[in-house]
Write a structure and sequence with these properties.
2 domains, UDP-galactose 4-epimerase, domain 1, 316 residues, Rossmann fold, alpha/beta, two-stranded parallel sheet, 18% strand, single chain
Length: 316
């Protein structure tokens, strides 16, 4: 079995590569030229890494036709809401046109290949609520260029499955975290600050609004879901990926600070607040669970690992 991952050197892509190797698959993947390979350091020699810009449609078609993978996991994307707000055009060039190039390459050269398209919970936007359960059938009302681009990808997958008969499954992951995640995200930015203060003897960390609940899943459980969707997901359909438990951000910060023995002060910085941030949400993950998926890694263990990762990074 041959698998191909776009964005293989990214946060989730690197964990997916590890999981696919453990399953016995041959693994290749695309790397955006100029991006680092640090996340793949432990497994790089077991992979086939191919520099590729997904907007070079000719090169993309040649590579996929030559590799002839049984499965394609499409993770490459502009993944920052902020970046999409700063440069909506580039976000659409990468997330929509690049994805369209991929689907066209599959349509013309690999019509029997399974494609897992990773979209985002951001597509729900204004439909998310703490009063109404969000499911795969909930309205899609995106609030940012990034969310619109992922909604377009989600719908492209449905169209290519229904119209062209391709085997395409859409994954809609909610918040996921783990070691190697960049500090632009909530848990690693807190852990990185704590690790730096632990080294220097203590001090102050700054955070945004902690009066919020979020559903966090370990990235390794998320990539297990991607593989399950490739194996058992129904073509043309989307699946929410989440733990199904709301976590209070204040408690997450408290747990991380409990793990150190130096004095740390937590300061809430209003400049770090996100506009119109939803306080809580209700999410339905039953469709994925019906395929046999369950989150296996406790969040507390993940937090410990993230802090240890940043301790090691800061010590370098």
């Amino acid at each position: 079995m041959k698998a191909f991952i776009t964005g293989i050197n990214g946060f989730a892509g690197s964990y997916l590569a590890e999981a696919l190797l453990k399953s016995g698959r041959q693994v290749a993947g695309s790397v955006q030229p100029g991006t680092p390979l640090d996340n793949l350091a432990a497994i790089e020699t077991q992979l086939k890494l191919i520099p590729l810009d997904l907007n070079d449609s000719s090169a993309l078609e040649k590579i996929l036709a030559a590799e002839a993978p049984d499965e394609i996991y499409h993770l490459a994307a502009v993944s920052s809401v902020k970046d999409s707000l700063d440069d909506p055009r580039q976000c659409f060039i990468v997330n929509v046109l690049g994805s369209l190039n991929l689907l066209e390459a599959v349509r013309h050269h690999l019509p029997k290949t399974t494609v897992v398209l990773v979209t985002s919970s951001e597509i729900y936007g204004e439909a998310l609520s703490d009063k109404v359960l969000t499911s795969e059938s909930s309205p899609i009302i995106p609030k940012s260029p990034y969310a619109v681009s992922k909604a377009a990808l989600d719908q492209l997958g449905r169209v290519y499955a229904k119209t062209y008969g391709l085997r395409v499954v859409m994954a809609r992951p909610f918040s996921h975290t783990g070691p190697r995640q960049t500090p632009t995200f909530f848990v690693p930015t807190v852990a990185k600050q704590i690790a730096e203060l632990e080294k220097s003897g203590g001090g102050e960390i700054k955070v945004g609004n902690l009066e919020i609940y979020r559903d966090f899943t370990d990235v390794r459980d998320v990539v297990d879901a991607y593989i399950l969707l490739a194996e058992k997901g129904k073509s043309g359909e989307a699946y929410i990926i989440c733990r199904g438990e709301n976590q209070y951000l204040k408690k997450i910060v408290a747990r991380l600070t409990e793990l150190v023995k130096v004095p740390i002060k937590v300061t809430v910085d209003p400049d770090r607040f996100r506009k119109a941030d939803l306080i809580s949400m209700k999410i339905d993950n039953r469709k994925l669970k019906d395929l046999g998926w369950m989150p296996r890694r406790p969040l507390d263990a993940t937090l410990v690992e993230i802090l240890q990762f940043w301790r090691e990074k800061v010590a370098q």
